[in-house]
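Marked as duplicate of an earlier ticket. Keeping the data here for the record.
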Amino acid sequence: TTEIYTLSLHDALPISHVAAASLNQTVGDWSGNRDRIIRVMAKARARGVKLICFPEMCIPGYSLGDRLLRRGTLDRSWRVLEELAEHTHGMIACLGLPIRHRGVVYNAVAVVADGKIVGLACKEHLATGDVQYENRWYHPWPHGQVDEFITADNERVPIGTLLFQGQGIGRFALEICEDGWKGIRPGSIYALAGAEILLNPSASWFVIGKHRVRRAMVEQLSREDHCAYLYTSLLGCDSTRLVFDGSVFLGLDGEIACEGKRFLFDTDHELIDRIIDLDQLRLQRMEEGSWREQVQSFTQGQYGPAPGLVELEGDYSCAGTPPPAGPYWEHKPQRHLDPSLAWLEKSGLVPTITPADLPHLELELALCMGMRDYVGKSGIRSFALALSGGKDSAMVAVLVHRMFRYDKPELSEPELLAYIHERFLTAYLATENSGSVTETAAANLASALGAKHHLSRMQSAVDEHVKLVGQMVGSEISWDNPKHDIPLQNVQARLRGSMIWMLANLNGSLLLTTSNKSEAAVGYTTMDGDTSGGISPIADVPKSLVVLYLHWARRFHDMAALDGVNVQAPTAELRPPGEEQTDEGDLMPFKILDRLMYQFVQVGQDPLEIFQALWPELQAHYGAENAKAFATDIRRFVTLFCRAQWKRERFAISFRVTAFDLDPKTGFRFPPVQAPFTEELEELDAHITALEQA
């Protein structure tokens, strides 16, 4: 412990040149992942960087799932680490990989200095809950424990709670992803133990608005610990349903000194670097009395044992000087609304971004990146889509167009449309229940977006199916029989699914489904019909947000072809035209449905709690004397939600973009067979009865 607080001669050097990089990696792409890391290290070395932090699990990719349980995954990860060590001459690199130590797997970061693996830091707080499942594979490292890791070559490497110190670099330590989000953080203990630079290699997935939360966190942690805080995450869509936006920051004693670009399509990495003044950080610590008191408490053992100290051989001093801070009264230029997205404006890919634009633009970029990486890493060249002329398929079509625009910024608009024409197939599959409004809207949108569009009038196929089934059951199948309503609707959707699948197969395309989150919640979808496809881009987008996005895209991207879509009320067009079928007529207003979904899934409220939470707000919609109508909608939603779980079990792969999703494989894991909140709904009925009597 005494050594940690004793200033040695080489600690007197006041500056360090540090960097953080985001990477677009792929699970199991051993040579590709290695080569990307080598290229970024070479780029950093050319800038004079001495310490660089890469994302969590950057060597094997994230998330590995049950591939982590294979010996080959662990062995190959270590071999790649040894290959990378050869490229760290004159610098220190922090590289993420899984480690098996004493028969247990840990989520680790290797510190490699000047060609030598000098230490292994392990994750203490595993990300478990929501879409994360790290406890299935990893064991959390006990804080304060230091051990020796024995390599296959019988070399001994320190592993555990470690503090690193080297000439010209000062003292640094690591906390891995989730470690930085905890109230009692490993990083704070490291700071009290003398670390002036904290590194947070992460694999933090995208959610709308999460980047601003990360930025505030980095500001706060660097201020609390009076340190330089380097944060980096992955970029792109890896093996899971998660999208990584590539957030990368350097926080310096409460301010963001550097922030990297996000959602990069034309490169596989982002690198930020800066020379930092360690003397300024040391001065802040010396001046603050409460800091000195906490250090004293630490030296007395009140926060547990001191980290193990790893002295690095070599000299990591840097040339150059840190940027001057300037006095506090000096005018500072106003920051961009989101500095990580300013590159989009400069490149001309989007107009000026306003606060109202940011959520929609983030949503668009995340879904476009998810689709681009999914097809690119799967070796697929093109997309197919049943374009109905309605809102859901329109949003998917717009996203495909924008994906190609972000991916090919060098193409002129005519060149882009020609490029898309060879890679995007759409089809309007009409029955006698289809209308001219949707047919025209689909054709106009396909033309504006560059898609190769087909039109099929498939009523004869529907009639033949109905005829054959009627012969099988020995009676006529007719709309006049209420029992035939759902079968007659579904046969149209399923035949459309069969036809668009065939077109996709003929073209070697990935079929996109158009199911949205609201319809998935209540099962308002036809299995093997409109759910057909390989991926479902908007499955985590509520219908209310679909509507808002389309109006935003019309304005922001100047897409006049969306006018024909935006004027329509959402409809499946599966019943005869005279019935004027609408989605909200079949269900309830989507603004109500989406609120119920949020309260039921995200907040975890039972029916009566939902009523009590929302009724004050929704009285104006239903009428103050009509609480029973709202209770009826709650009953309908909860019952349909429970019954629809079997459908959600079969949905195509989707991308997580909001605070919660309904994906039973990674998100909301709900039992497909259960009593559908029977007693809870009876409580709601009793409450409504009491209100009416009062």
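See parent ticket for discussion. The chain has a mean pLDDT of 94.
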